[in-house]
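Hi P.,

Sorry for the delay on this. The queue was packed all week, but I finally got your sequence through. Input first:
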Amino acid sequence: MESNKAVVVRKFGSYDALKVEQFRLPPLGDKVEVKVEYGGVNFADLYTRQGLMHNKELPFVLGMECVGTVSAIGEARTDLKVGQRVICYDYHCGMYREAVRVSPDKCYPLPDHISTEEGAGVFVNYLTAYFSLIELGNLKKDETVLILSCGGGVGWAATQLAKNIQGVTVVGTTGAEKHAEVQSNGVDVTLTLDDSFEGEVVKACPNGFDVILTNHAGAIYNFLQTRLKPLGRVVLIGANNMIQNDHKLSLFTFFKSWMATKNVRLIDLIVNNRVVTGLHLGTLIEKDCQKVRHALEKIFKMFEEGKLKVKIHSVHPMENVVEASRLLAERKNVGKVLICMK
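Then the structure:
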């Protein structure tokens, strides 16, 4: 059986769950083969390694997105060509390896005006930001948006998309050491998510927000709902605050956060004229892939027009996947962290 070098999860838990080793390749069959150059690191990869994202049969290859070049085409009916650069995405994982074999519907052609390295920072970050702010959040001219973790990959992308709408004010949270850098990306007001956050956010924006993009569940999420203006929208895209260390996530940790978030009272929504919603990019792709491809075309066009620019924090060889993962877990990155398979 064919194999190649990959980042393999053999148990759920800490960083020692990750091994770089030879792992079997599926038959080419009706798939296309892509020689991988870069993989994007996402918080969802941390959830998956720790055993929370979805049921996985061990062992498996980690990674939800990668970029590379089509190297072979099996029996699949496809417009893809050998030598064509593509983004590959599958939230069921399998992308952190030297070459992947995937169905053509998991491949997205990368236009010439975006480099391969930049392409590894586009798919998850900019699509998540686009559907959260533009589709679900319906962010409009002269509105105010609060973006939590504005220094991360999604937050960086969301800031750029927001500033492409006339008159939008962006308030963002990030570590104090990142304030200057996120301001250079367009954040108008920077806050730090610490013990004084609730008071500071009220002081910074006493009238509240039209849109809030949050990756925090629990008590923070409940508080953020109260900071919405009438007809305001809060979009939940994750529960990154559950990742506080490198240990396996326990059911107690998960349910503690869930119990603190679950009570969205319908009477509060009605009386306060507010919207609460959420986004899961992986299931959206499975249910409406054409909507995702159409949005990606819009994003590529904005890159071509110079309205968007990927921020790459750092690039790490496959063997340093633990270092790359730790950057996200410890919130030390500004922009996208990549793994290099070349």
